Amino acid sequence: MLEELKQHYGYMFEDELIQEINNVGTYKEIPEGFKLIEIGQYIKSMPLLVSGAIKILREDKDGDELILYFIEQGDTCAMTLSCCLGNSKSEIRAVTETDTKLIMVPVAKMEEWLSKYKTWQQFVLQSYHNRMSELLEAIDTIAFLKMDKRLFKYLKDKAMVNHSDVIYVTHQQIASDLHTSRVVISRLLKTLEIDGKIELNRNNIKILDL
Amino acid sequence: MLEELKQHYGYMFEDELIQEINNVGTYKEIPEGFKLIEIGQYIKSMPLLVSGAIKILREDKDGDELILYFIEQGDTCAMTLSCCLGNSKSEIRAVTETDTKLIMVPVAKMEEWLSKYKTWQQFVLQSYHNRMSELLEAIDTIAFLKMDKRLFKYLKDKAMVNHSDVIYVTHQQIASDLHTSRVVISRLLKTLEIDGKIELNRNNIKILDL
DNA sequence: TAAATACTGTAACTATTGTTACTAACAAAA
DNA sequence: TTTTGTTAGTAACAATAGTTACAGTATTTA
Predict the structure, then answer these.
(1) DSSP tag of B210
(2) Which residues pair with B102 in a beta bridge?
């Protein structure tokens, strides 16, 4: 774990802090599609992402989902920070988008380090800043774009975090992530295909215009 | 200013910090409709709200607006925090919704206090948490509600921060805040009136079903 | 007072998104 | 192989939101 830490967080944290994280953190390898955080759940530890990607989702009153953004390597979940420090329940769901390696840090330490390490404080504040920006971008996407643009942006983002121009997903899954219906997605995907931006196959989509 | 500070922030900050804020902060009274922060602008000081309300807006590529939320007494603008600490430009616009009293704190001090005062650190993190929640609520509203519900929520929120069941606003202004067209708003307002939820007058709307 | 401007109401039409229903292709399980 | 379930394509229609156009009323300005 120490190697991973140094490689991904060494440029940011001093050795002493890296050492502390190494002592109290637990290294985990999680497969794709695993639910890391559920809405309403209290958070006991915070994930530091080493590799892979996590999908952050919001839920409406009927239990239908909406994707907010993806988190990638070097990030942490600011929502988690928020919940820990406010001692409140999670307002979002977090699901691994790909196979993921992460280091779990207990909440108690997190607070302690805030006073002890300036770099940790910087990291926490920077994470808040990043997540705030991502939320604003999510709002832009939802409020300002029509569904066809939103869909194409979603496909490109998904291709990005999966490091592949072919994404394995069904129309129904896309519809869930974008909080619309399968028929709408199928229709728009077909249009994108006709426009030569994607190639449709069963269970997967190839993005041509990346 | 000291009186105002003690009254609104005394329960939260220790005397020493209150004293420091009193020393370096500037007290300001701002009329309704004043632009406090503009998109793309660097922030040099942070507002602590004493009384009144501030409207936070996002802008699309065509320059059209969208309201995110209102900030009230006891709050600060977490976006400002975010910008200061990240040394980045503002991603939002802030306009006084009512006549407003606030205390401006220079950025430099803000960072210094983070290490010096635990309560300040708590305040900053709490502000991030609150703003994150508000952004999530904004997303819920935009993504999950149809325009008629959004409109009614907007009217109620506006009545709330103005402490009045009569709000003085034109259909065009509402349309701008909700990022839609005047005709749509007029149409939906008429429906709300027929349903007995509001009373329409020239330049003002009375909310009956608060 | 007359003219110009701002605000609201409404009709008619278009565009976008959501819903229901049905078909066909494919894949996994019995 | 047959059955069952999953996935995708498409038509037809409904609901919601956006646009254009115009009229009437109130308010401000010349």
Answers:
(1) -
(2) B28, B49
Beta strands in B42-155 (DSSP E): 45-51, 53-59, 65-72, 93-96, 100-106
B95 and B43, same structural domain? yes
Q: Are A142 and B142 a contacting pair at CB < 8 A?
A: yes
Task: Show which of residues 133-172 on chain A sit within 8 Å of chain B, judged by CB atoms.
Answer: 133, 135-136, 138-140, 142-144
Query: Over the stretch B40-83, which tens digit does the pLDDT of each residue have?
Result: 999 888 899 999 999 999 999 999 999 999 999 877 777 777 77
The first and second tokens of residue A56, run together, are: 């952050």
Quick one: pLDDT band at residue A92, thresholds 50, 70, 90? very high
Mean pLDDT of chain B: 93
Nearest Cα residue in chain A from B57? A136
| Predicted confidence (pLDDT) per residue in A54-89, tens digit | 999 999 999 999 999 999 987 777 777 777 777 789
Q: Which two tokens stand for residue B36?
A: 């406090």
Name the minimum distance, in Å, from the CA of A86 to any CA of chain B.
7
CATH number at residue A125: 2.60.120.10
Å between CA of A186 and C1' of C19:
14
- The domain containing residue A58 runs over which residues? 2-143
Count up the domains in chain B and report the number: 2
% of residues, chain B, pLDDT over 70: 100
- Looking across all nucleic acid strands, the nucleotide with the smallest C1' to CA distance from residue B203 is C7
Structure tokens at A91: 């307002």
The order of strands in the sheet holding B166-168 is B166-168, B204-207, B198-201
* Average confidence score pLDDT of chain A: 93
Cβ contact A115–B92 (<8 Å): no
